[in-house]
From TrEMBL:
Domain of life: Bacteria
NCBIfam families for this protein: SSADH
Protein name per UniProt: NAD-dependent succinate-semialdehyde dehydrogenase
Family: Belongs to the aldehyde dehydrogenase family.
Organism of provenance: Sphingobacterium alkalisoli
SUPFAM superfamilies registered for this protein in UniProt: ALDH-like
Pfam families given in the database record: Aldedh (PF00171)
Keyword set, alphabetical order: Oxidoreductase
Amino acid sequence: MKNTLLIEKAYINGKFITTENTFDVVNPSTNKLVGRLPNLSATDCQTAIQVADHAWKSWKKTSIGDRTAIVRRLFEAIQAHKRELAEIMTLESGKPLCESLGEVDYGNSFVEWFAEEGKRSYGETIPSLKNGLRLSTIKQGVGVVAAITPWNFPLAMITRKIAPALVAGCTIVLKPASQTPFTAIALAKLAADAGVPDGVFNVITSKYSSEIGEELATNPLVRKITFTGSTKVGQTLMMQAANTIKRVSFELGGNAPFIVFDDADIDKAVEGAIAGKFRNAGQTCVSVNRFYVQDSIYEIFATKLASAVSDLKVGDGMQEGVQVGPLINENGLEKVKEHVADALHNGAKILTGGKSIEGNFFEPTVLSEVAHHSLIASEETFGPICALFKFKTEEEALRLANDTPFGLAAYFYSDNIHRCHRIAEQIESGMVGINTGLISYAGAPFGGIKQSGIGREGSRYGLDEYLEIKYLCFGD
């Protein structure tokens, strides 16, 4: 049965458009063509920005009741088309279908959350120290929002940006990753069906990522840019956005530690490690990158983890029972191979896995005795590799965990409540999972510190990212 949401067009001003210049989208599991999309230029991006700016004039005047009702209808439309969206995600990203189905629920939870939270963007009344003055604040949408999203979560990385933007009264120009643009186009179709007016939500498909990014970051009509991706690209966008003093919110690179103390429940720690490491074949920004295990339990944890990892089923995400899909492309595969080879060169041992498989696949792998100067200790691997390091004391674990310019997510396992408080307060990370490997929820703030980003997504803080505070002073 044909998937009616798989649309080979871009979306500007309420219209699906085509061009002679196109680019291919390939399934990383099979290397077969998924489809072709318009390869839009910076000039096309300028047009989309102008359209969004024009649409903002009326959208910002739309009542909050009407805006949140439209976003609620988008939530319902996504729910109704869950299977179709999941199949598109699996085709273009390679992730297992069960994960794609889970991502639809996860991504849509942000749409539902902000459809409600948008009604609570409260201002305040401020006591005046002088008679005859009335002081208050209101919150208003920032204006045109540029959103740039990555390939690893083709739906969720979009919904947690556009849902708060829409209810805040902003209009959007979205540039999805060229590896996974079909999910974004499907979302645009559902948004139109839900009643989002023409020009309010626009999707630019293109392989000209740097040119489109520069246009979005420098165009004076754009009031805010939100980006999820690498720290290097985030630095470039931030510098480009500085000339027009844009609002920015960036979710950037990570290097998440996972600490297992000797008072932890080891079986639960192994379960959390699997959840925190192998979702999307380890290609998530909050994926565990460094496992620090206390020396007295190191061997038993390593043995149990290797056993669990060896049972994971690898393959095409459309096949039944597959738990680990491919790397997104050959470059992703080469980085994983480089990190494993470097770790082995520096004395690491393979407990399970360790080899690439045909195509873009790599075996789920556990490496023990990894040296602290290995590449995998300082660089984000973005692959299905567990690198195990040994530590002796709590102080050493904290020092090692914090020895990175990144600070997005961190995890640790301990049954000592006092230690839990100490570590949670001292670890340098925007998010901390305590005795769990899954941390992201629509009602909780998602984001990092240090070079892992600026701002938060999800929660009431995620709505504030798209609002300006206006102070009103009434004289007598």
